[in-house]
């Protein structure tokens, strides 16, 4: 695994294997510097591989990448998140088709957010290979140790496990519909020093499908929701400011769910896993059913009568959707060009504090 002129440029170009290359640009790199360095990367790649490289852009769309190399596939997703399973499959298919069509073909994984994206793609793609599998696995292990260490979010690790489990048969795919009935969130007293006003957002394929009211005074929070959705984010609306912070974020895929309940502990929740305020023994529970109706004979928990809910979801802090138009915009867009792409697979949950 070679690094190319790493100290002389504002990028890291690494040959993970002879035919898979990672190019990482720092997140805060200024636009002018990024564009100049991108030209250097293109020149290096063309001098060694001519026109036989395919660039997979794992970050936000950019016009300048396409202008420098027309063979670009855009597979970006929000930072610190796991990509949807259908996007993972599309990436693996693109790599496989390009590499098998010509022995001189190489793939370039472009990241302008975090190098972990390239690691996730490579670690997911490796099981697809029938030839050179041992070499690829050793290269992947070395690349992961050098570049990522323990910085992956729980949801990112979960999706790598999904792919490995589905390919090996350890995870059996559930094709039956699942309806989310309730989300049970534990008491979080350490968040309440400066006021704790949580609300929940539920996403499907980065599209916001539900926003709860703001909960005021609660021991344990029960949110009732009756739709086929699969992702959550919990926020806390800050009391004396027009801001919010994430309490936890969670992504999972319902095709891996067997049964009517799921529990996620602190170590399985994005954001919360490193937050000292989140109790180590606390869990978030999800209750499902096979249809929109509640399961007959099942006892559903209810909130304490003392809990009040503010349903003013038009408040800008609550209403703001951080993923809105992600698949439509270009990071360097000056022309207002829009390309609409919607993906229909995984579910994201975010709990926040208002």
UniProtKB/TrEMBL annotation:
It holds the Pfam family PTEN_C2. One of its GO terms (molecular function) is protein tyrosine phosphatase activity. Residues 2-170 form the Phosphatase tensin-type domain. It comes from the Eukaryota. Residues 175-291 form the C2 tensin-type domain. One of its GO terms (cellular component) is focal adhesion. SMART domains: PTEN_C2. This is Uncharacterized protein. It comes from Mola mola.
